[in-house]
Amino acid sequence: MRQRVHIEGRQLEVSNLDKVLFPEVSFTKAQVIDYYVRIAPVLLPHVAHRPVTFTRWPNGVDGQAFFEKNNARHAPEWVRTVTVPSPGSSRGRETLDMVLLSAVPDLVWSANLAALEVHVPQWQVDDDGAAQLPDLLVLDLDPGPGTGVVECAAVAHRLRERLLADGLDPVVKTSGSKGLQVYAPISCADKDHPSRYAKGLAQALTGETPEDVVWRMEKALRPGKVLVDWSQNNTAKTTVAPYSLRARPLATVSTPLLWDEVDELRDGGDPEQVRFRTDDVLARVEEHGDLFDVSDRHRAALPG
């Protein structure tokens, strides 16, 4: 069933609102749309100037999913789009036409496509749509077999100390899945600078505690260790946006944390305390505001 809705002066069509997209928790498309509308004030600043890669799950999280970078062809005329150079993974195209989610109707449109996850790069486009140098650093902490978010919290604490020592001002969030992600606002000299710096950090932590940390991707190296994935600083790659839903059975959300919460976890806290669903996240925003807001934080030049 299709119906027309009016939101902030835009008219759009939504459909199948009662379709269950997260069967384990009976979470419907209507609830997905409602969440993205309600979280928009804190989500939009983090994605509005970053070309979006959607992960779409038209038949719910138990069905087939697909990434979609060249997504502007689906967009209403009022959704802003940009043409950006194609990464190496997109064969046969020199450019991609990508969407910018910059207003609440844009989020409703994308949620109606069952674009459950929103992924963005660590760089923005300017008002003319030209790609800028990266303005964020990211280190994705992914627990290997036999480890979990508690071990990730220990590594996140160490990363924070190193970043602070280098003059950076880090923030942290859950991945919404198993791990944590540490970010810092930066300025840099060239687009590859963040990858070089992040790789150096990952190698340094591995060198200090090779029994706990790994910087290389090979699965055989990862049991019992936390991978410090530095590779998502590559300008062709994206990371799940803060406040994005994850296509996981419980409809969890990639959620900003206080550093005190990371330290509580590191000291033996309950991993369930950092597994947040939509209502939890909305309540946290009501209490804390946007813990991922880097707009007023010091944007340091990367060392090296």
Automatic annotation (TrEMBL):
Domain of life of the source: Bacteria
Record keywords: Ligase
Single GO MF descriptor: DNA ligase (ATP) activity
Coiled-coil segments: none
Keyword Ligase included in the entry's annotation: yes
InterPro entries: LigD_pol_dom, NHEJ_LigD
Protein name in UniProt: ATP-dependent DNA ligase
Residues annotated as domain DNA ligase D polymerase: 28-292
NCBIfam families: ligD_pol
Originating species: Modestobacter versicolor
EC number annotated for this UniProt entry: 6.5.1.1
